[in-house]
Design a protein that fits this description.
This protein is α+β, with helices and mostly antiparallel strands and about 200 residues long. About 35% of the residues lie in helices and about 25% in strands.
């Protein structure tokens, strides 16, 4: 008499690249540079978006781990004022200097020798050298002289967004509605709106 047993179900089914479903849950794998591989198991109730997010974060973490093991080498940014550099903001009291440099900390040190006030590096974000002129034009109404600007709510919001890692090009065009919401949050929290909370 023939057997009435069901054929065996496959133990693994591929859901998408790097994610498989097994009989007891999902298994996500990430291959890193240098041949290392990590994996994590998730319950069947886990949304696939959560698993994809873990894979994205793990790839980024593995990438930086790999780069940290590479031997020391020259900076990736070219030493050219016309190429890629850093847009930086230095604060001296109620004034802010907005400039560009391939080494913002070194630039701060050089400027400090000729400044009576302590200079604080608020932010340095990678960008193309041409962005400096656009930032100067955007805040021309706050200019004190050359690259020095008055620290106002508007400029503080711009610098705060750069500190949060937002795209400097997108940060250039602030609308009044967002600026007013930021001022209201500062008033509610008891923070003077002209001051940078992080600084």
């Amino acid at each position: 008499m023939p057997s009435l047993k069901r054929p065996a179900m496959p133990t693994t089914t591929r859901i998408s690249r790097g994610i498989r479903i097994k009989k007891n849950g999902y298994e996500a794998r990430v291959k890193h540079a240098g041949g290392r591989e990590t994996y994590k198991r998730f319950p069947l109730t886990t949304p696939l978006e959560v698993i994809d997010r873990w894979r994205t974060d793990e790839r980024a973490r593995g990438h930086w781990d790999f780069l940290s093991r590479l031997p020391e080498r020259e900076p990736l940014l070219p030493r050219s004022p016309d190429g890629w550099c850093y847009l930086y903001a230095l604060r001296a009291g109620t004034k802010v200097k907005i400039g560009r440099s391939v080494d913002p900390e070194e630039r701060r040190s050089k400027l400090q020798t000729s400044s009576s006030e302590p200079l604080e590096l608020l932010v340095a974000t990678p960008c193309h050298a041409a962005l400096e002129a656009a930032v100067h034009e955007r805040f021309a109404h706050l200019r004190i002289n050359q690259e020095w600007f008055e620290l106002t709510d508007e400029l503080a919001l711009f610098i705060g967004r750069l500190q949060d890692g937002l795209n400097p090009v997108a940060c250039l065009w602030l609308d009044e509605e967002r600026l007013e919401r930021w001022r209201a949050r500062c008033r509610t929290a008891g923070i003077p709106s002209a001051a940078l909370a992080r600084a």
